[in-house]
């Protein structure tokens, strides 16, 4: 079982990072092969909407995303973690997600409409953390995550969400949520 964690926050060591660390540790403890990438450490341009991937299923932009594609395709599970920026994911994570248009195009080219009704790439999970208590805080990001996983040919399996935390480390005040993240990781590896 290959699990990749995506750190979507530009702040290293923040609350979403800490929850993802817990999830990855849980997966590792259950025997999964775990890897990760940090969006803010990668040189990823935004999607140019050039249409090239519509014909080939491959992106023509040469940057770090080319190696990310390989990692995403090889994964059985992807866990995306991000703080909420104006009720959405940070731009670094969104650039990576938008560039998965190529994988969406590849899926459209290689699968019939009937085949696309089922996912064959595994499962995707989302860890969201926000400073506000807004009722709809995670709705937009969760939809983005769902369709990101759809492009990866993965079903969206839910995640862990925490409101009202802002300062790095505040998540430590919520041991039940830390435990929930670790269990999420362990459960993904045991499927």
Structural summary, described in words:
The protein is α/β, with parallel strands linked by helices and 191 residues long. The protein has one domain (2-190): Rossmann fold. It is built from seven helices and five strands, in the order βαβααβααβαβα. It has helices spanning 15-29, 52-56, 65-74, 91-98, 101-110, 139-151, 175-190; strands at residues 2-7, 33-38, 77-83, 123-129, 155-162. It has a five-stranded parallel β-sheet with strand order 2-1-3-4-5, sandwiched between helices. The chain is globular and about 50 Å long. It starts with a strand and ends with a helix. The mean pLDDT is 96.
Sequence stretches where pLDDT stays below 50 over 5 or more residues: none
Overall tally of structural domains = 1
Biggest β-sheet strands, sense, barrel: 5 strands, parallel
Q: DSSP helix count?
A: 7
CATH architectural name: 3-Layer(aba) Sandwich
CATH superfamily: Flavodoxin domain
Number of strands: 5
Class per helix and strand makeup: alpha/beta
Physical arrangement of strands within the biggest beta sheet = 2-1-3-4-5
Mean pLDDT: 96
Give the strand content: 15-25%
What is the CATH domain class? Alpha Beta
Cα-atom Rg, whole angstroms? 16 Å
């Amino acid at each position: 079982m290959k699990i990749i964690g995506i750190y979507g926050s530009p702040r290293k060591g923040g609350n979403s990072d800490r929850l993802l660390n817990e999830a990855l540790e849980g997966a590792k403890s259950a025997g999964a092969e775990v890897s990760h990438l940090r969006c803010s450490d990668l040189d990823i341009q935004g999607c140019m909407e050039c249409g090239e991937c519509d014909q080939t299923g491959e992106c023509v932009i040469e940057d770090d995303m080319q190696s990310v594609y390989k990692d995403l395709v090889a994964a059985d599970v992807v866990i995306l973690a991000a703080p909420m920026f104006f009720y959405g994911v940070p731009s670094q994570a969104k650039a990576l997600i938008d560039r998965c248009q190529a994988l969406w195009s590849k899926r459209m080219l290689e699968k019939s409409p009937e085949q696309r009704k089922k996912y064959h790439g595994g499962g995707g999970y989302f860890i969201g953390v926000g400073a506000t208590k807004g009722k709809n805080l995670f709705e937009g990001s969760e939809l983005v995550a769902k369709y990101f996983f759809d492009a990866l040919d993965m079903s969206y399996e839910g995640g862990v969400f925490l409101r009202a935390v802002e300062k790095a480390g505040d998540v430590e005040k919520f041991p039940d949520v830390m435990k929930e993240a670790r269990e999420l990781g362990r459960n993904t590896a045991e499927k």
